[in-house]
Design goal:
The protein is an alpha+beta fold and 231 residues long. It folds into 2 domains: 3-75, Luciferase, domain 3 (Roll), CATH 2.30.38.10; 80-230, GMP Synthetase, Chain A, domain 3. Helices cover 29% and strands 24% of the residues. Strands 1, 2, 3, 4 and 5 form a 5-stranded antiparallel beta sheet that branches. Strands 7-6-9 form a 3-stranded mixed beta sheet, with no helix packed on it. The protein has a 3-stranded mixed beta sheet with strand order 8-10-11, sandwiched between helices. Strand 6 and strand 7 (87-88) form a beta hairpin. The radius of gyration is 20 Å and the shape is elongated. The termini are far apart.
């Protein structure tokens, strides 16, 4: 846990509508006190969104237990949301996919009340090409591209069933469909901010059509035409 709440600070856990949740339920951490910020510098719209009636909506997800310990689980606004309303923070899975795989250079997970999670992946094409070459194929051919996509799929399968990382995360949040990106996230294309963090809203907006495609029967197959074309 993150411990007890400091003195002179009020805290509550709220749902996406700003309604306070009972002890033990996960939601957005909302705080009030003399030591919270006054607002964002020259950004009235962001201030109005974060500060409401003196309460600061932190954007962090957590819960309070019956002993008044606070548990912080990740970012509230970047959550995966299942079709049953269950929420899960994607950052841990995304970081693991990049750290454990030389092939996956960048990745973002997405699920907005659907029955499975999708991933947009920008692969390390040099490493991927070498992997394809090691099995006697050329990534510049259609056959080689299909092999490359199966290799990417294998990297994700490590987190499922009997895979070597299957213990790390709940399997329902491991992506069941993958979209390959031709371009990575950079400051220049405004998909990374100045601290080199992914700007999720902009990524999701730019690739809205691809995300929708990944929820179709054709899109769920990793060797679909769009992925082949992206390689």
């Amino acid at each position: 846990s993150s411990g007890f709440i400091v003195k002179n600070l009020e805290l509550k856990i709220c749902d996406s509508d700003g309604k306070e949740l009972p002890i033990g339920e996960k939601g957005e951490i909302v705080v009030k006190g003399e030591n919270i910020m006054k607002g964002y510098w020259k950004n009235d719209s962001a201030t109005k969104e974060a500060l409401r009636d003196g309460w600061l909506f932190t954007g962090d997800m957590g819960y309070m237990d019956s002993d008044n310990f606070l548990y912080v689980l990740g970012r509230f606004k970047s959550l995966l949301i299942g079709n049953d309303g269950e929420k899960y923070s994607p950052e841990g899975i995304e970081e693991a996919l990049v750290e454990q795989s030389a092939i996956i250079e960048q990745v973002i997970l997405y699920n907005n009340q659907s029955n499975y999670t999708t991933a947009l992946i920008f692969p390390n094409k040099a490493v991927l090409s070498e992997e394809v070459r090691s099995v006697g194929k050329d990534i510049n051919t259609e056959e080689g591209k299909k092999v490359a996509l199966q290799i990417i799929s294998r990297e994700i399968d490590y987190y499922l069933l009997d895979g070597k990382y299957s213990h790390m995360f709940p399997h329902r949040w491991i992506p069941a469909s993958v979209g390959i990106l031709e371009e990575g996230f950079t400051e220049e294309n405004k998909l990374l901010n100045s601290t080199m963090k992914m700007v999720r809203g902009k990524v999701e907006e730019r690739y809205k059509d691809l995300i929708e495609y990944l929820y179709t029967p054709e899109g769920k197959i990793i060797t679909n035409e769009r992925n082949i074309s992206a390689l």
